[in-house]
Write a structure and sequence with these properties.
258 residues, alpha/beta, two-stranded parallel sheet
């Protein structure tokens, strides 16, 4: 986790709930900074002591409320939601920790509002943050589909968990938070489809699993099915996560959102 103090609270709560047999290890990782990935992977390798990872759930995400960049200069939604997960998975693989594994990639139906995901998107305006988030969710699907195509030894599943009442997008205030709780599903409900894909046998490898609709066959023309764009994004992420090549091309000027 990115906040060790909150992580320790969660770890201790699990230990209290499940007793002394519950073994929980805490590893610090800040997804907005690629330089934290290598130390995190080293810590994970020490924890696993040579054992391979069975399950990786790619769940970290931000919905920016103001234009911002990561430590390496990338637009923050792309950096956290797409690039850092790619870097983490890549380094785990290079460390021999993912010879075979189940990979669950979380996205969101909001991806259909966009047609591309690139590392050079810049924005400003009322709806820019929503666009950045939506683009990153399309990028999550592209990377997941490419991962399933390139790594046949991995079982990859893509999940829409539902519209969940969390603090994604920032605190909405007392009234706004109350409306979110009424209109959206709870975090416990939102965890159900990711848990299904993390634990259940007989699922379709590379399938898109929706919290309310189950396994969904995407229609022709859906932006998620753009295989050429997915390949280009994969190759760009490989460039950006190669050590010594993590600086974006130029400094994009924020564009006015619509």
């Amino acid at each position: 986790c990115r906040n060790p103090q909150r992580g320790r609270v969660a770890r201790d709560a699990l230990r209290r709930e499940f007793g002394p047999s519950c073994v929980v290890h805490l590893v610090e990782l800040e997804l907005s900074d690629l330089d934290t990935v290598a130390p995190a992977v080293e810590a994970i390798a020490r924890v696993t002591a040579g054992r391979a990872i069975d399950l990786l759930v790619e769940n970290g995400g931000v919905w920016p409320t103001a234009y911002a960049r990561s430590a390496q200069g990338h637009e923050i939604a792309f950096a956290v939601n797409v690039l850092s997960h790619f870097a983490l998975r890549r380094r785990l693989g290079e460390a021999g920790l993912l010879p075979r594994a189940r990979i669950v990639v979380l996205t969101g139906d909001i991806y259909v509002s966009e047609s591309t995901c690139t590392d050079d998107f810049a924005w400003r305006g009322a709806f820019g943050g929503m666009r950045a988030y939506s683009r990153s969710k399309l990028g999550n699907i592209w990377i997941a589909f490419e991962l399933a195509r390139r790594r046949s030894e991995l079982d990859v599943f893509v999940v829409h968990p539902g519209v969940v009442a969390t603090n994604l997008g920032g605190d909405a205030g007392s009234i706004g938070n109350a409306l979110k709780r009424r209109a959206m599903i709870s975090p416990e409900q939102g965890a159900q489809m990711p848990l299904v894909c993390a634990t259940q046998p007989g699922l379709r490898r590379g399938g898109y699993y929706h919290n309310a609709l189950g396994l969904v066959d995407l229609p022709a023309g859906d932006p998620a099915l753009d295989a050429q764009a997915a390949c280009r994004l994969w190759e760009r992420c490989e460039e950006l996560t190669a050590w010594g090549a993590r600086t974006p091309r130029g400094a994009p000027t924020p564009q006015r959102g619509f």
